[in-house]
Amino acid sequence: MQGFTGQQHFASHKWIKEMTVESIAAQFATDGKIGKVQVHGGGHINDSYHLANTKEGAPDYLLQRVNHHVFKDVPLLMQNTVLVCDHVAAKVRKDHPDEVDRRSLTIVPTTGGESYFKDPDGNFWRVLRFIEDHLVFDSTTDPDIAYQGALTFGAFTTMLNDLSPEKVGTVIPDFHNMNWRLTQLKESIRKDTAGRLKVVKEEIDYVESRAKMMLTIHELGESGAIPLRVTHNDTKISNVLFDKDRKGLCVIDLDTIQPGYVTSDFGDGIRTLTNTGEEDDENLDRVSMDLELYEAFASGFLDSTRDILLDAEKEALVYAGLLFPYMQAVRFLIDYLDGDTYYKVKHPEHNLVRTLAQLKLTKDGEAKMDKLRAIIKKLS
Ligand code: GN1
Ligand code: MG
Fold first, then answer.
1. Best mutation site among 44, 178, 343 for ligand 1 pocket (most ligand atoms within 8 Å of CB)
2. Span 196-247, pLDDT tens digits
């Protein structure tokens, strides 16, 4: 294969043995001439590089290595991504014909016309067009940002309303299936691989005491009361790009797109956005569900989905806001019991700290349930 110099490696990225990042970038059908290559963003799962274009008027790009340990079928993931990008671009073209490149993601094919490149080490790479002049918020206390973010996620849901979930593959089976997560938890309790069960008895009791309510959405789905849609499944506020006027532009990070329920995209948004503390806050007094941000997010989401959602879906939203902190707590708890095999941890108790913070958020939401219900009812 040509262009593999194998000489200049990024020391911190030991997984690139055979090729340089530059030579990987050269596999793609980019315009202009790629100059500087810089590590971009702080994703927990993939690795990203910003490719600056030295040619006037030619776009910059984003080169990403997709983590194939988490995403076991990258070709399927890329097939979903291309399908969804094309679908969204076609919708955007109608309302914003001059801004398709800013309001939807563009996958740049390899010189051989493929959506990804597999290097000799077995890593999977893709290139996207870089969206210039955008803002990203990792968190916010500003209800306008919450509203705009939710409006953008909801618009994404609405654009995908006519894309049949049967056309989209499942990249992570049972990803947001609460019933399966509880089964996984039982298994982790039984094995007690890391010998940590004794530390989390109280948390497990709480989880079990809430299981019935938290299976509501699963049961609505199983009975067909709420339909499968094409869902994003990672709707944190940092997955929306904003323009300079703080208006939502585009939804990013399409890796977890697969068939799911609308409650996932509402619920994970609520979980990440309304928390007054950190996802892994050690000070539980800081963790709570902010009602103003909740209302702003719900308002934005419903303003862009009200016309397409079924009544049963709207009614399920209030459970989603509790389910996602709870499910995330269960996922962190499983990883704690298993000995930290899934999430990157900064210290041995990190998954426990995360579990406690997510349980606190769940409990706070539960205590505010009547208010949350009233907000959803008013906005539906
Ligand atoms: C992972 O890495 P990030 O933040 O995009 C996880 C999400 C969790 C989140 C918790 C594929 O997402 O489901 O909600 O961590 N993604 C996967 O912070 O498991
Ligand atoms: Mg993600």
1. 44
2. 999 999 999 999 999 999 999 999 999 999 999 999 999 999 999 999 999 9
Alpha-carbon distance values, 76 to 31, 109, 167 (Å): 26, 15, 11
How many CB atoms sit inside 10 A of residue 312's CB?
13
Q: Which residue has the tokens 């049949």?
A: 164
Residue nearest to atom 7 of ligand 1 (CA): 234
Give yes or no for a contact between 249 and 152, defined as CB atoms under 8 angstroms apart: yes
Which residues lie closer than 8 Å to 210 by C-beta, 6 or more apart?
326, 362, 366
Please give the average per-residue pLDDT across 365-379, as a whole number: 98
CA–centroid distance, 322 to ligand 2, in Å, is 20
Residue 172 C-alpha to ligand 1 middle, in angstroms? 12
Coil, strand or helix: which one is 143?
Answer: helix
The residue type of 227 is P
**Ligand 1 atom nearest residue 328's Cα:** 14
In 3-state terms, what secondary structure has residue 125? strand
DSSP 243-293: -TTS-EEEE---TT-EEE-HHHHHHHHHHHHSBSS-TT-S-GGG--B-HHH
SS3 179: helix
Which atom of ligand 1 sits closest to the CA of residue 253? Answer: 5
